[in-house]
Amino acid sequence: VQLQASGGGLVQAGDSLRLSCTASGRTIYRNSMAWFRQAPGKERDFVAAITWSGDSTNYADSTKGRFIISRDNDKSMVFLQMNSLKPEDTAAYFCAACPYGSPCHRESFVASWGQGTQVTVSS
Fold this sequence. Notes:
Elements: E1 2-6, E2 9-12, E3 17-24, E4 32-38, E5 44-50, E6 57-59, E7 67-72, E8 77-82, E9 91-98, E10 112-113, E11 117-122
């Protein structure tokens, strides 16, 4: 499956931004999906994950309460609504697909990666 992330940009602290991830090649309706991010000079970190049905989500402590992950299986899309953005949220954001039934909060679980979309939050 090919994943295409979009929606990044330059925003100010406190603003909101919505990222989208579109899958092509095959449907993702049976995949757990996740977002990761990587700041310059740092390792790639987990941001949020969602089960194939959308009935369960998981967030990093740093994003819990501010970010919301969701999905539309009919459109093979996954979203990340980011609210109350902070400068430390600045990073390239990557969407990821994990196998059915697999957790998706670690890079080792990821089967497919999308290219990153840059989010820059100014103070």
